[in-house]
């Protein structure tokens, strides 16, 4: 039995033996989060300059790109920086060997994204990048009183992490870190009953998972299948968009705050919710911009998010389009942290629906409406054509006959012109290849 105190000593020691510096980074991040806005921006800019100078020195691909746009890596303004072309997934696929830093001294890790559409992206990271990102995550979880080594149950469906190799590789960390990884695939009632029994025995301090998986558990708990006999410090929702209706249900069922974590496997940890409800950009880890050409309404703060990972020295991600749309905010937060905020995270551009007039409707608005129906366990909206929408639904026993008409009427209101909405009851909805649940599949946009 490892007590929290022993773990407090063991974990940093273990990290040090592995050559990682997570706890040194954590101490640094505990300090920088309180810097005032201007000071923090300066700190961020220093890191950006260091990354650009390194990329010009050691990364053939960027050396060429900087030359082409006439960027002086020793001295540049934000305007100069914005001349660097946006990096697409394809750019990385086509130039992989040239993006890897020459003679990088640290240990490399090869990773891939679990793409929900198209082929995955293979890329490199380093133990340094990973350690910094872990430190950033630990820092943000501490906002909620969640300490390193607190027992964690994580519901995960990604075939990447659940591969045998990864499990063996991480087994030691998991034991020391008190980290239980459970599959979020195939969450039948019998499986959920087992998970909850295990949780009741172990009493984890924190629960992490896809909102869709956590929501299934919440619905199961609320339906009275069984009861939780502990209260976690928080429930972290990650890797998918968190709908307000899901948040409410999860919060009720677990009796704990739901914490929104926003990251991308390739871009890194991007933003984290604080107890005041703001999504704070993890500004020491990433520099975020919005691609102004992609704003849906002309607002320059809204559009595709471009990520520069400030700690990606082995394989630099600079002005990388991760595929999500966000709205940046210039408001400060009452929690007092200088970290900038995201007003909104809007998900993928493919999460939009279209109507016959060619108008775009944000899929999450529609998803939010359907999520209000108590009798729906899971759903997925498939846009076949601009005038045909299929809604696949998994019902529970609260589903009423009148719900059919309510859904159709409520959704039709978002569309200009005719739209044919078909409800298709199904037994289950499979997660995508990446393990994530997709609310919206727009076949008309492909
Ligand atoms: Zn805050």
From TrEMBL:
Top-level taxon of origin: Bacteria
Residue ranges annotated as transmembrane are none
InterPro entries, alphabetized = ANL_N_sf, CapK_Type1_Caps_Biosynth
What does the record list as coiled-coil region(s)?
none
Q: Which SUPFAM superfamilies does the protein's record reference?
A: Acetyl-CoA synthetase-like
PANTHER family, sorted = CAPSULAR POLYSACCHARIDE BIOSYNTHESIS PROTEIN (PTHR36932)
The protein's name is Capsule biosynthesis protein CapK
Question: What is the scientific name of the source organism?
Answer: Thioalkalivibrio denitrificans
Q: What is the lineage of its organism?
A: Bacteria, Pseudomonadati, Pseudomonadota, Gammaproteobacteria, Chromatiales
């Amino acid at each position: 039995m490892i007590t929290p105190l022993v773990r407090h000593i063991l974990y940093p020691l273990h990290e040090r033996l592995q050559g990682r510096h997570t706890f040194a980074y954590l101490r640094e991040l505990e300090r920088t989060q309180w810097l005032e806005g201007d000071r923090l921006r300066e700190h961020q800019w220093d890191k950006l300059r260091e990354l650009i100078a390194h990329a010009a020195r050691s990364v053939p691909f960027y050396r060429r790109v900087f030359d082409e746009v006439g960027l002086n890596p020793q001295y540049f303004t934000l305007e100069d920086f914005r001349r660097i072309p946006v990096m697409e997934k394809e750019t990385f696929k086509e130039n992989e060997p040239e993006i890897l830093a020459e003679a990088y001294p640290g240990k490399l890790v090869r990773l891939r994204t679990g793409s929900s559409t198209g082929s995955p992206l293979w890329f490199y990271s380093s133990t340094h990048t990973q350690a910094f990102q872990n430190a950033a995550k630990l820092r943000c979880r501490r906002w909620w009183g969640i300490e390193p080594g607190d027992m964690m149950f994580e519901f995960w469906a990604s075939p990447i992490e659940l591969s045998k190799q990864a499990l063996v590789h991480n087994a030691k960390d998991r034991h020391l870190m008190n980290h239980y990884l459970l599959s979020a695939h195939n969450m039948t009632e019998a499986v959920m009953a087992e998970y909850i029994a295990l949780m009741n025995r172990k009493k984890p301090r924190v629960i992490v998972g896809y909102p869709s998986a956590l929501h299934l558990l919440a619905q199961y708990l609320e339906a009275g299948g069984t009861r939780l006999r502990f209260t976690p410090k928080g429930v972290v929702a990650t890797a998918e968009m968190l709908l307000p209706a899901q948040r409410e249900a999860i919060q009720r069922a677990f009796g704990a705050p739901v914490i929104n974590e926003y990251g991308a496997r390739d871009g890194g940890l991007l933003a984290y919710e604080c107890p005041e409800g703001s999504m704070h950009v993890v500004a020491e880890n990433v520099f975020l911009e919005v691609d102004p050409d992609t704003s849906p309404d002309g607002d320059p703060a809204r559009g595709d998010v471009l990520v520069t990972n400030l700690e990606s020295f082995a394989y630099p991600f600079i002005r990388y389009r991760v595929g999500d749309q966000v709205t940046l905010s210039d408001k400060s937060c009452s929690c007092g942290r200088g970290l900038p905020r995201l007003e909104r995270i809007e998900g993928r551009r493919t999460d939009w629906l279209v109507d016959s007039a060619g108008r775009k409707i944000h899929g999450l608005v529609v998803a939010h409406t359907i999520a209000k129906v108590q009798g729906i366990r899971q759903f997925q909206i498939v846009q076949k054509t601009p005038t045909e929408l299929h809604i696949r639904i998994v019902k529970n026993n609260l589903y009423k006959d009148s719900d059919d008409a309510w859904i159709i009427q409520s959704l039709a209101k978002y569309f200009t012109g005719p739209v044919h909405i078909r409800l298709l009851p199904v037994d289950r909805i499979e997660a995508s290849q990446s393990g994530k649940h997709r609310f919206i599949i727009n076949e008309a946009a492909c």
